[in-house]
Amino acid sequence: MARQDRDVRMSLQTLRVLEAFLENPTESLSGADVQKRGHLASGTLYPILLRLESAGWLSSRWENVDPSRVGRPRRRLYRLTASGMRRASEVFASFNRGVLA
Amino acid sequence: MNIRDDLNDDSAPSSPPDDWALQLTRYAARRAPGELAERLDEEWLADLDMHRGPFARLRFALGCCRATHVIAREPAAYGVATTPVAVPAVAIADAAPSLRRGGSSRSLLLFFIAFLHLLIIVAFSTGIHVRDTDRESYTPTGRVIIKPRPAEPPPPYTGPSDSDFAPREKPNPQLPAFDPIAFPEDTSTPPLPTGIGTNLSSAEPTGITRVIGGPGAGFPGTAHFYPALSRQLGEAGAATVDVCVDTRGRLTGEPQIRTSSGFPRLDAGALALAKAGSGRYRSTTENGQPISACYPFRIRFALTH
């Protein structure tokens, strides 16, 4: 998947996804993890994850487990990229500017 | 991929809703454009496995159908190459038509989805009610309507008659103009601490006329202190802040929230506004002389459309 550092249209749901990742920026989360933290429907969540990944804000990889051994499928894990962390922080900082003025 | 085999053998759900959820999820994944189909197939099956309960799994599967629909409408926005491997060259320009093949099966799926929605609504009416309650917190005026600021009951009137107050109701000519936040002078309300958000002129048994202070001329408005995220989330409400003000209208201590607006962000904005107004408060006066005193006043954050 092509990854470029480009702008992403912000919506309340996108903010919730970013907030879930910013709670612990070094943590890798599966779609189900983000869904639980952000209280989002799967129909909303996965397009956002793919859009953020396509824009270079998130990167993803397969979970490093053997499915036959753990008895469940591999999960796709997402985490913030360096530029994604910076861009997401800027977004939230801009929202707080009104309080800090 | 061996995952599919595993799911079809050992871990295949036995109850019908579980089976529907599995089939629906795989159907949705296979309809994704380009090389995304294989990835989503495995990813969604793994995430489906993390959902407990047949109806939670069904909801997840239905969401996957919607996700596929959204992605297929604009695959380029999701970084998907629009050149499906097994699709004829005619479909290269747009992978979405692959979803339109087999119109009858698609109609059947839509009927099936509608039926499942009805089933879920009936089965989880209580749960849906809880979610609706949560959603109200995002309506611009939800908190204000649901939780109106509790009115403090006025104490029983035991004071002198109206005629006793008549000489003391002269307006003080030295008072500055009221700020929009302040409320008009009210001579009928009892003294502090019950006069939230009002400026009071009351007579005490000793004959002292006290006028409670408030935001004075040049006091900052709420516009610059309305948290941007609160605007985005539609949070609105009023917080009551306690302030202590000296004879020159400056704060002598940290403002405190007396009554919360119901939103921590708005409370923080109210405190920031109360601090920023230091030096622009009207001092409380006794017989026209400014004194240091503490009093509450109300700050309302309202959304304008």
SS-based structural class of chain A?
mainly alpha
- Beta-strand residue percentage of chain B: 5-15%
Task: Based on Cα principal axes, name the global outline of chain A.
Answer: globular
User: What level of helicity do the residues of chain A show?
Assistant: 40-55%
Largest sheet of chain A: 3 strands, antiparallel
The residue-averaged pLDDT of chain A reads 85
Tell me the fraction of residues in β-strands of chain A, as a range.
5-15%
Average per-residue pLDDT of chain B, rounded, comes to 71
In N-to-C order, the SSE pattern of chain A is: HEHHEHEH
Considering residues with a beta carbon less than 8 A from a beta carbon on another chain, report the largest interface and each chain's count: A-B, 38 and 45 residues
Name the poorly predicted regions of chain B. Answer: 1-13, 84-103, 132-148, 169-204
- Secondary structure tally: strands of chain B: 10
Oligomer: heterodimer
List the total number of helices of chain B: 11
Give a short account of the largest sheet of chain B.
Answer: 5 strands, mixed
How large, in whole angstroms, is the Cα Rg of chain A?
Answer: 14 Å
**Widest sheet, order of strands of chain A:** 1-3-2
Find the count of extended strands of chain A (DSSP E, 2+ residues): 3
